[in-house]
Amino acid sequence: MRIDVHNLDKKFKSTHAVKDLSFTVEPGRVTGFLGPNGSGKSTTMRLMLGLDSGSGETLYNGKVLTAHDPITKTIGAHLDAKFFHPKRTAHAHLKMLAAESRVSNERIDEVLELVGLESVARKRPGGFSLGMAQRLGLAGAILAEPQVLMLDEPANGLDPQSIQWLRDFLKYYASLGRSVFVSSHLLNEMQLLADDLVVIARGELIASESMPAFLARSKGSSVHIRTPQLEKLQSALRAEGIGVEASGATGLVAMNTTTDHVGDLAFRAGVQLSELTAHTASLEDVFLQLTEGQQDYQVGGSSAESEAVASIDGGAL
Amino acid sequence: MINALVYELRRIRSVRATWIVSALYLASVVAFGALPLYLGSHEVGSAFIQSWKGLYNTPANFFSVVLLSVIAAQSFGHEYRYGTIRLTLSEFPKRERVLIAKTLVLAVYVVVMHFVAWSALGLVGKFAPSGSLNAGAEGFTFNGGAPADLWKVLVYGLAYCLIAFSVAAITRNLALGIVIPLVFASVLEGLINGISTLVHDRLRWLVDILPISNGQSWLSASKELPHAGLVFSIWVVGLLMIATFMFARRDA
Question: A25 pairs with which residues across the strands?
C-alpha cells in the first residue's frame, strides 16, 4: 500500500514542529525515517495517523485513513514501547487490540510466539524490560497483518540478536508487498535495513529518496590509492580537476571520484597502481553532513571536555 | 461501532482495578445497607426504622457512588495515564465512536452494578434481624431525605459517574476525575452553602446552581433547591459536551 504524505504542517504554541512536509512511502520497501532529536519525526507519524491535528493530508492508496475499514488491516502502528496498562497481561493487551479486526486467539498466540513473548503471555507487562515492551508493541502492530507498518524507534532497548531479528522480519514483511515506515536513531542499523529514506530536520524535509541516492550525496566519497609513481599520478589527477591529498609515503586520497575514473587516468598516464580502494561514506557520515547545525538540542558546547571529545571523533560531533 | 464497544468492554474487563473497585462498591453498599438493620434502633416510633425502599436507596450513598465513579474516571484516566489512548485512536480514528462506546459501556456497567447491588441488598433484607425492616415505615437514606424511587437512584448514580467521566476526559487525569467531583460534593458545596447562610443568602444564586447539591436535592425530592433536576441535568450534559468537544479536537 502506497502512502502519500501531502503538505503536513503542525504548529505548537511557539514551535513550528512540522513544516509543509511531503513525501511518499512505496509498497514492498522499507522506508527509514531519520532526523535529529526534536526534528518532528514522532509528530509527523502522529499526524499521519490522525492522532494530532494539523494541516495537510496523508493518503493510503489514495484514501484517507478513516475511509479504510478495518483500520488495523490497513495500518499497524507502534509509537512507544510503554503504551500499555502495566497490570493488563500481554495476552489481554493484544486481545483488546484485536477487537477492531476480530483477530482470533490463535493469531494472538502466534504473534506472541513470533516476538518471543509466549512464556510471559499471561504476565503483567509492568515489569517488562524495554526490549520486551518493544516486542509487545510490535506484536500489537502486526496483529492484524496490516498493509502498512509504522514503527517509531522499534529497536530501542533490543539486544543485538533481537535487532537482527527485527531487521530480517521488517525486510520480510516488506517483501510481501507491504509498506514499512520506520524511524530509528541507529544509523548503522538503518543502513542495513532501509531501501528508501526520508530525512527531516527542524520539521523540514532534507531528503526523500533511495538509500544509494542518499549516500551518493556524500561530500566525503573518496578513492584510496597506493603507487610507487606518486608525483606522476598526482599531476594526472590534478590536471583532471580531482582534489588530491597525500596519505603516507606512497599513498594518495582522491576526493569525490570513482575507482573507475582513477584507474582509467592511471592507465592513460602509464602509472602503476598497487592499491585502488573506494571509500564510500556511511549513512552516518551523510546524515551528519546534511543535518549539521540543524539539531534543536546540540551536544558538546565549548568546555575542555567537549573539545577533547570532538578531537577524538574528528570533530564529527 | 460494535467493534469499538467490544474494544471498550475488553479494556474495562482486563484490568484488575475494575474488579477490585466493583467488589469494594458492592461491599460498601452491603455494609451501608446492613448497618442500620443490625445496629440501628428498631423501637416503634423511632425515626431511623428502615424500609425496603430505604434499603434499596443504599447504592446512592455518597461513599458508594464515589467508588463507582472511580470506574467512570478510569475510562479516560487509564487511557491517558498509560498512553493507550494513542493505540485506541489508531484503531478507531473516528473519535466520536470511541466516546460513544465508552459512554455506553459505562452506562451498562452502572446499570449492572445497581442491579447486582439491589440483589445483594435483597439478600441483606431477607436475612435482616426481625423487626429491623418495617414495611410500614417511611425509611431513610444516608444522604438525608426520604427514599427515592429506584429509577432515580440509578439515574443519580449514572449522572455522578458521567460527571467523573467527563472531568477525567477534560483534564486527561484519572485522579482529578475522581477528586474534583468528590471535593465539590464533600467540601466546596458545603462551604459555599455555609458562607451563603453567613452573608444572609446573598450567595443564594450560587447555591442554586451547585451541581452535586442539586443532584442530591433532586434525588431526595427536597423542595429546597428550585429546578434541582434541571440544574443537575445541565451540569451533567454540559460537562459531557465539553468533554466530547475537547476529546474530538485535541491532539491525542
Answer: A3
Write down the mean pLDDT value for chain B: 89
pLDDT tens for residues A67-120?
Answer: 998 899 999 999 998 899 999 999 999 999 999 888 899 999 999 999 889 999
pLDDT at A285 over 70: yes
Q: Could you give the percent of chain A with pLDDT greater than 90?
A: 48
Using CA coordinates, name the residue in chain A closest to B249: A53
- Tell how far CA B204 is from the center of its chain: 25
- pTM of the complete model: 0.81
- B82 to A83: CB separation less than 8 angstroms, yes or no: yes
DSSP-based three-state secondary structure for A28: coil
Question: Which pLDDT score, from 0 to 100, does residue A205 have?
Answer: 92
CB < 8 Å from B in window 102-121 of A? 102
Neighbours of B23 (CB within 10 A): 11
Q: Is B91 at the interface with chain A, CB within 8 A?
A: yes
Q: Are B92 and A69 in contact (CB under 8 A)?
A: no
Q: Which amino acid, residue A81? A: A
- Mean per-residue pLDDT for A199-225? 84
Q: Which residues of A23-35 are buried (b: 16+ CB within 10 A; e: fewer)?
A: bebebebbbbbbb
Give the span between the Cα atoms of B213 and B225, in whole angstroms: 8
% of chain B with per-residue pLDDT over 90: 60
Q: Tell me, yes or no, if B16 comes closer than 8 A to chain A by beta carbon.
A: yes
| CB within 8 Å of A255: residues ≥ 6 apart | A220, A221, A222, A242, A243, A244, A245
First CA to last CA across chain B, in angstroms? 20
Q: Are A45 and A152 in contact (CB under 8 A)?
A: yes
Cβ-Cβ contacts under 8 Å between A and B: the total is 80
Interface ipTM? 0.83
Cβ contacts (< 8 Å) between B90 and chain A: which residues?
49, 51, 71, 75, 77, 79
Answer whether residue B199 shows pLDDT above 50: yes
A316 pLDDT band, cuts 50/70/90, is: very low
Residue B67 CA to residue B219 CA, distance in Å, equals 18
Angle between helices A160-175 and A130-142 (to 10 degrees): 10
B204/A contact by beta carbon, under 8 A: no
Pairing state between β A179-183 and A196-201: unpaired
Task: Answer whether A219's CB lies under 8 Å from A292's CB.
Answer: no
Cell 477487537 maps to which residue?
A99
